[in-house]
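Many introductory courses stop at the sequence. We go one step further.
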Amino acid sequence: MPRKKRIWFPGAKYHITSRGIRRTSLFHDDNDRIEYLRLLEETKFIYPFILHAYCLMTNHIHLQLETIDQPTGTIMKYLHSAYATYFNRKYHYSGHVFESRYGAELIDSVAYELEVNKYIHLNPLRANMVQDLNDYKWSSFLNYRYADQSSLVTTDRIFTFFRAPKVDSYLHYLHANVKEADRYTVIKQEIIKRGE
């Protein structure tokens, strides 16, 4: 049975996830993470896109990505092929590095866009990797924390939804207790259901 074709159009926004094969580590050390981010920036230069957020966990990644004129398939194929080549060469492995096809959830509303951004940035905290997000350097959280526009991450769009002082408003939103249905749980359940 052929794979379902992904919905794509210029300007489409996605929550992209990808996991190491058999849920093994994608990153064995900080040099691996540095290389993944370098390749992400290289990919962005070759196939331009807008990156609103990212988080590198031990065995999976999250990207909040907005396309410009290339579909996510082209972007992710280049990025993950390049990383797999690096990873297999470094560790003397062969074969697949990533498990199955990457996940790409179309972001179809501002509310969902903000929740995806929150979910991505809270991931290390919820996984008990750190007690304070300021201590986790492998996500774009610090770009938002210090309103730092970089060549990789664009914070402008997300900040347009927060009143001044924007960083304080964003941090309040990020850490606010959600009393009703916690979208984090909903998003996580969707990812688990897809087997990502």
